[in-house]
Amino acid sequence: DTEVTQTPKHLVMGMTNKKSLKCEQHMGHRAMYWYKQKAKKPPELMFVYSYEKLSINESVPSRFSPECPNSSLLNLHLHALQPEDSALYLCASSQIGQAPNYGYTFGSGTRLTVV
Amino acid sequence: KQEVTQIPAALSVPEGENLVLNCSFTDSAIYNLQWFRQDHGKGLTSLLLIQSSQREQTSGRLNASLDKSSGRSTLYIAASQPGDSATYLCAVKDPRRGSTLGRLYFGRGTQLTVWP
After folding, report:
1. Tens digit of pLDDT for each residue in B20-59?
2. Shortest Cα distance from A17 to chain B (angstroms)?
3. In a 10 Å sphere around its CB, with 0-12 CB exposed, 13-18 middle and 19+ buried, how is residue B12 labelled?
4. Positive or negative CA dihedral for B27, B69, B66, B7?
5. Hey, which residues 79-98 in chain A have their CB within 8 Å of chain B?
6. Half-sphere exposure of A7 (CA within 13 A, CB side)
7. Among A50, A56, A101, whose Cβ lies nearest the Cβ of B31?
8. How do residues A59-82 score in pLDDT, each as one tens digit?
9. How far apart are CA B93 and CA B76, in angstroms?
10. What's phi and psi for B82, nearest 5 deg?
11. Pick from A12, B22, B56, B102: most CB atoms within 10 A?
């Protein structure tokens, strides 16, 4: 299995809703990432998990809450979002080792629309 | 801070042409460089990964080169096809806080259209 699987593919939520995005990989990668991508822009890093622990938070608002229950799963819990949070949310994973030369594998993304 | 630039921003060509997409980066102290393809509204598909010690990588009709000292990479697409139409993103993995996790810096992409 060489894929990162994201669900759902599309999500429409109201500003008072609570929803979660899910990401799964079975490649044995111990680093997992959440990126946000707005139209015609490159992906922007949100969070990094290393060995199931949050290692980087790029000053993301608390209405986004990441969770890494185990080495294969990464969730992003959403609450009280704003319309400007509408974007494509991408999950990625990579190996960790002594040599920092591993590439990234990205999922197909969740298209989020906040109404 | 690392800055990645891709030229051209958009490219429209007839089927069968050989193409060159350019990527430049400001700090040559990179771990590696990765080329991705992104279809409209979809996720990123990795095309080629070039380590900092390598000069080029090939996969099928794709060839990517890396000149780390000058901060440049090119993606060469041979005999382009309509199915190659997509946005091509260049990303460099940069040292961050001494961690092997590094950090990925993206260019803004080249939007390629290949027409029949």
Report:
1. 999 999 999 999 999 999 999 899 999 999 999 999 999 9
2. 24
3. exposed
4. positive
5. 88, 90, 92, 94, 96-98
6. 4
7. A101
8. 999 999 999 999 999 999 999 999
9. 21
10. -55, -30
11. B102
